[in-house]
Amino acid sequence: MKVPFVDLRTQYYQIKDEILSSLEMVCENTSFILGPFVQRFEKNFSKYVGVKHCIGLNSGTSANYLSVKAIIQPGDEVITVPNTFIATTEAITAAGGKPVFVDIEEDSYNMDPEKIEAAITKKTRAIVPVHLYGQPADMDPILEIAKRYNLFVIEDAAQAHGAKYKEQNVGSIGDIAAFSFYPGKNLGAYGEAGALTTNSDEIADYARKFRDHGSREKYVHEIEGFNMRMEGFQGAVLDIKLKYLENWNDARRRNAAYYCELLKDVDNVILPREMPYARHVYHLFVVRVKERERLQQFLKDKGIATGFHYKYPLHLQKAYQYLGYKEGDFPVTEKVMKEIISLPMYPELHREQIEYVVDSIRDFYRCK
Ligand SMILES: Cc1ncc(COP(=O)(O)O)c(C=O)c1O
User: Fold this and answer.
1) How far does residue 264's CA lie from ligand 1's centre (Å)?
2) How many other CB atoms are found less than 10 A from the CB of residue 47?
3) SS3 166
4) Nearest protein CA to atom 4 of ligand 1, as residue
5) Does residue 153 sit within a domain?
6) Could you list the residue range(s) of the whole structural domain that residue 323 is in?
7) Average pLDDT score over residue span 105-115
8) Where are the alpha helices (DSSP H) in 280-330?
9) For labelling alongside 40, which of 14, 125, 141, 323 has CA 20 to 30 A away?
């Protein structure tokens, strides 16, 4: 049996007619960049998230960048975690800031609120919790610290469309949020796309201008911006897929529950924990194991694709040597990241596929 890591084709076949007729309309309207299809998606996504504004962009990385750029001055420090995709921190640096890392909690794999205060300096301007794998970070204590120190909170919600923190949708909890619609995400475009969400009129106005060369009116430039506009095709695809997101997230949750049921008595596997405050949407189903490289190869030989999210913590990557961190600085992150492996996860995954993955994991530990 083959179990791919994600299966975008099966999902496409389910919605093919709707998608193709919508793409045809984009062509008929020649609404290739921004325009009515993007606007409709922005309206519907802001309603879904529960915020005043959604600004459609050309990638999640752009959303990360613009959310930081909107609020910091060059030299400001921005606190985040070392177990994230590099876009989170690239955005901080590109906006003129300096990433400052804090460690994570061992059960949620998200920012440990208790570690934040020690990292705050006079230069700190913002905190960027990442809702990693689809599980919200513990936002209440983060918001409380931010309020006390007068800091902005930017949610990196790239992996968590539809996740909830105590009944509130992620993307509506901090001051700004960045979403990615990279094709494999819970809500994925058919190309590059992202969005910034916020309740602030001022930040929304800045982001809307910035994404289009600093202009509200063509060739009238109020500020120097850049080209970060969402394409019409992506707006059209996303607007269709948004209608299915809740069902797809429910299917992910069912798949996660089935994995957990089947794996619960396997000693060598630590299962993901859904925190009491969270509705986890399982963008990734990440377990912790012994000998993950050997397990990965074993599963690959059986036709099962897996991944490491992520292979190394950012503070130990060559790209961030200049920040001066060393091994041992973030012990929880370092320990967890040596053990994690992401198993196949997508809404269309069959029960038989999950059973096959679990049986194969059992075989691996039995064979040794
Ligand atoms: C946590 C996180 N932040 C930011 C991004 C960047 O999004 P994009 O790939 O759409 O630029 C991603 C995408 O993989 C991500 O997982």
Assistant:
1) 30
2) 11
3) coil
4) 87
5) yes
6) 245-367
7) 98
8) 292-301
9) 14
